[in-house]
Amino acid sequence: MINKVLVANRGEIAIRIFQTLREMGIESVAVFTEADAAALHVRSTDQTEKIENYIDPGEIIRAAQKSGADAIHPGYGFLSESPSLSSACESAGIIFIGPHTKTIQSMGDKLESKRLMQRAGVPVVPTWDGNPPESEFPVLVKAVGGGGGKGMRLVDHPSQLSEAISAASREARNAFGDERVFIEKYLRSPRHIEFQILGDAHGEIIHVFERECSIQRRYQKIIEETPSPALAPQLRARMGEAAVAAARAADYVNAGTVEFVLNPDGHFYFLEMNTRLQVEHAITEMTTGLDLVREQILIAGGLHLSRTQSELQQTGHSIECRIYAEVPEENFRPDTGVVAVYRPPSGPGIRLDSGIQEGSEVGFHYDPMLAKLIVWASSRDAAIERMKRALSDFVVLGVRNNIEFLHRVISSEEYRTGKFDTQFLDRQPDLLNASTNDIPPAARIVASLDRLKTTSGSGQMFTDVWTSGAWRNS
Amino acid sequence: MTDEIHWESANHGMLRLDGRTIGFTIHDRDATGGWIEIDERVSDFMSIESAIWSRYGSAVERIVWFKFGRGRSLMIQAKYAP
């Protein structure tokens, strides 16, 4: 029985976990750093503990002991996939709400995890320890110890391989403290599709269907949806079975995600396993009715899974957009500032998992994700229209953000057809820049309020005018 | 397209656009927004202003969120010399 949970995280995911804890009658403890003293997650909990940083397992354990927490939820990022926190919990007699340390270790090693999956009969992308045959180029050099595009290089020709390995190793050492890299077959234009899995301590493992994560910028997901428009029922069933086999091979307990790449020819390959709750878990919740955080807590408490595979079904369609404090028109550079105006969307089928409010300061210390906007509707087309409406209603002023960029992506014809892959943005660079030519006259009136008494010609109204990111000298 | 805006009071003015003269009125203004009525249409807006500095000197930056049409909105960033 879990009575009090310390959430070793911040922002929207900490708040999201607090919400379920409250519903379950479990007390919550927030941790916060100096930079986060006024953050929203600190005010959304029962108890707080100040720490120096979010990535010191010793500090997290001390905070849990001081607060009397009997369990720790790591959220995502920070220490969520570090075996150091789960093993420290085991040593301290604190329940870690996540998989066993040995599972985190084996899945954190991208090469070892692929070998494990291969032995379990799960299809994996071909990899090489040494030089691949020339016919296999292009290839990817990837870091053994992590992901997210860090320590990764695309190599078109064997002559470039040695230099790419050196560069990727250096980057991997800096990012993950592990310079090991491996070489993987490069798949052109794959889709990125992941399966949510749940496993309990009694050996039951189920999958909770897929999430389509192909819309990415710089190897980071920005829009996710479920069901995937690419999966027919038969392929979904095959991939689901492979995901469960992968989880079984890893002795998986708690919530996790099996990531696959899907080739245009219909073949799919294991990419990696994420041993944590995913950022995009909410779309699975919207289409299945499950509360995945609740499932995690019940599993960590030793209970059986609340549903069997045959009891689960997907209903309707859900899309998530990640709202970042960044400027897509300037190569996605992060922005900082104080949120002066914050007016979130509302209405049927809309969920907002947010870590900010009006007055929040968005700094450079942490990830620039502000919120996750999630919609549900009975069909994909209806979900797209709902997301367009929600994005157009969403006002965040004071820190530049990607809301309009997301609207352009969601409104694009290629997105609507559902026939896209991870190269989506590379093929559509125009989506990065908004037109400055279609500013309605009424908008120009509003922009000139109190500033100009009489103006003539759109070019003479302002010193500069900018829409959605790009300055235009006028 | 060329247009001309003439403010008759703080919240009311005339827009000359494509040979037509259209009245407009700003409603419910407060520090961060309001709505504009023009040509039998209404649009919601919110805005903030801040001082900015660059190597070219200082300016006032106004960022406006403006909602128009069916399910569309846009952001305008306007800079004014002080």
Describe what you observe in this structure.
Chain A has helices spanning 11-23, 57-67, 83-92, 101-108, 110-119, 161-176, 233-249, 281-288, 292-300, 380-393, 403-411, 413-417, 424-427, 441-447, and strands at 4-7, 27-32, 47-50, 71-73, 95-96, 127-128, 139-143, 153-155, 181-185, 191-199, 205-217, 220-226, 254-262, 268-274, 317-324, 326-327, 333-334, 337-338, 341-343, 350-354, 361-362, 369-377, 395-397, 454-456, 464-467, 470-473. Chain A is α+β, with helices and mostly antiparallel strands. An 8-stranded antiparallel sheet of chain A has the order 14-13-10-11-12-15-22-20, with helices on both faces. In chain A, strand 13 and strand 14 (268-274) form a beta hairpin. In chain A, helix 2 packs parallel to helix 3 and helix 10 (380-393) runs antiparallel to helix 11. The longest helix of chain A is centred in the middle third of the chain and has 17 residues, at 233-249. Chain B has 82 residues and is mostly beta strands. Helices cover 0% and strands 77% of the residues of chain B. Chain B has strands at residues 3-7, 12-17, 20-30, 33-38, 41-54, 57-68, 72-80. The A-B interface holds A 340-341, 343, 385, 388-389, 392-393, 395, 397-398, 404, 407, 434, 439-458, 461-468, 471 and B 1-7, 10, 13, 15, 17, 24, 26, 32-33, 36, 38, 41, 43, 45-48, 59-60, 62-68, 71-81.
Structural category of chain A is: alpha+beta
Helix content of chain B: under 10%
Q: Structural class per helix/strand content of chain B?
A: mainly beta
Low-confidence stretches of chain B: none
Biggest chain pair interface: A-B, 43 and 43 residues
**Biggest sheet record of chain A:** 8 strands, antiparallel
Q: Helical proportion of chain A? A: 25-40%
Distance between the termini of chain A: 65 Å
CATH superfamily of the largest domain in chain A: ATP-grasp fold, B domain
- The domain tally of chain A reads 3
Oligomeric form: heterodimer
Sheet with most strands of chain B:
7 strands, antiparallel
CATH arch. level architecture of the largest domain in chain A: 2-Layer Sandwich
| Helix count from the secondary structure assignment of chain B | 0
Q: What value does the average pLDDT of chain A take? A: 92
Shape summary of chain B? globular
Unreliable sequence segments of chain A: 456-474
| Secondary structure: number of strands of chain A | 26
> Measured on Cα atoms, how large is the radius of gyration of chain A?
23 Å
